[in-house]
Design goal:
The structure is a homodimer. By secondary structure, chain A is mainly β. The first copy, chain A, contains two helices and eight strands; from the N terminus they run H-E-E-H-E-E-E-E-E-E. Chains A, B: Residues 37-117 form the Phosphoribosyl-AMP cyclohydrolase domain.
Chain lengths: 131, 131
């Protein structure tokens, strides 16, 4: 597909090949725009996401299709999918159906963290601080 | 670094090695939470971002350090940097200093698009629609 079609066209032509079969999918809470997690999507995961209406990824560590929530119950319901200019990144805008999106739990509450991005870099000390 | 330190610690230990030297950096407008772009960061790009206070990436196509805005003027000033649980993805929260974050221009206005994510998948037709 030429550059103009890729950037200005209406055909979905996600460039999975560019980085070994996967594109990163940014998962964003549709309610407040918070980024919940980032995971990887291949052709099958993309199609499964559309079919199920639930955020589905390819687990590059377990090497298998991964519909978030199938073991934990923390499904992420798809509201919107966006692609970027050169179609090598996606945004899944979701409504979380369970406790959170992260696999970690807060030591204080014992509950699943809502987002994987719970630490920021302190720009002075260069260390991480919990947000 | 063990899993507990990685997930619960305060040491920055970004896992660049996991995917060939780079991690994806989600660029988010601090004003409204809109995702503007996604690009890749290696150790040098991360350090340069901290040093300059401007979003810097590694261009995997040109194979060079890339401080966004150096040619276009569209710098992305760093307000906050977040990392995820297993430290293999970053969020750069930024204040755009120029016209936008995308390299494309809107055919209607002739202006640089503010975000690279200007199309969404129509969940019925599976085609792209401009947002």
């Amino acid at each position: 597909m030429d550059k103009k079609m890729l950037e200005e066209g209406s055909d979905v032509c996600i460039n999975f090949e560019k980085r070994g079969g996967f594109v990163p999918a940014i998962v964003q809470d549709v309610k407040d725009g918070r980024v919940l997690m980032l995971a990887y999507v291949n052709q099958l995961a993309y199609e499964t996401t559309l079919e199920k209406g639930m955020a589905t990824f390819w687990s590059t560590s377990r090497n298998e299709l991964w519909t978030k929530g199938e073991t934990s119950g923390d499904f992420l319901k798809i509201v919107e999918i966006l692609t970027d200019c050169d179609q090598d990144a996606l945004i899944y805008k979701v409504e979380p159906q369970g406790g959170g999106a992260c696999h970690t739990k807060s030591p204080e509450t014992g509950k699943t963290r809502e987002t994987c991005f719970y630490r920021k870099v302190d720009l002075e000390s260069k260390d991480l601080k919990f947000v």
